[in-house]
Amino acid sequence: MKRLLFILLVALFAFSACRREKPKPPADSDIKQTPITLDIPRFFPEMLFPSDNKMTKERLALGRKLYYDPILSNDGRSCSQCHFQSEGFTSDPGFPTTVLPHVNLGWSKNFLWKGRKDQGLENVMLYEVVEFFQTDLSKINADAAYKKAFKEAFGVDEITSKEIAYSLAQFFRSLISGNSKYDQYLRNEVALTQAEMDGMDIFFTETGDCFHCHGSMLFTDNDFHNIGLDSVFNGSKGRYDVTGNMSDWGTYKTPTLRNATLRKRFMHDGRFSSLEQVIEFYNSGVHMNSPNIDPLMILPQKENGLMLTQEQKDNLLAFLKTLTDESFTTNPNYSKP
Fold it and tell me: Does pLDDT of 11 surpass 60?
């Protein structure tokens, strides 16, 4: 009798188990991520991608939307408010500060003029969300469209600063400029004029010495230099303000020269309004007695500046203009969605 009762209990349990509803799929099964690859221009260095933020269509689209959305801030600001695509994703003269352009930052190791942030785009974007914009997460979590998009892109039910920063980092990483006339020349697609060729020779030789800091396909060494803008520092002391190291006194990050002709403000404080003024500074305006001046600025036979003739300055400017990439400034994939 006991054996029969045991068998009946087992059968009843088995039947009940068969009728039990299947468990709901885990939340991550709702993620719809589409892996993508970026089109890296020819001759550019390899771009490294963090293992926890591989490029996907969904995350990139989110970052692009956030870039243009003032929901990032509590006072109506957005990334696009200071960085205009038509000007190479930098600011216009009406802004009180000069911002570094958002271009080719996927290869950058230091960020902002004084290098306040490093360790990759995800890290600097986290700074932008938490400290710069002080993003109100409750507003984004209350937005149904963003809740759905972040669920699809990251599989999260609660949006945090990390997911916002990671999606922004993907859009920043996609902002690649590598189709200027100079790039086309390297690909044997167009020819440079004689003035542009002569300017290129000045740029990449000791005549102009530009290539030391603005070399490689990125036209920046991503490093910091005191180029002799001032002999006395009242206020900002460059990267020294971040590190406290005397070797960083008066140094600022080297900006890329790609799309430089589109800018209206040059140097960290925007003191120059044209490339002609910048060239003339290197030609005859360097403060050689600036404390901690970069050794490159006082090389032998350069004690009085570059000493370029007017024709050489014109040719150097002509070459710099070949770095303008209109396919970058008009790319619809970078514009407001």
Answer: no
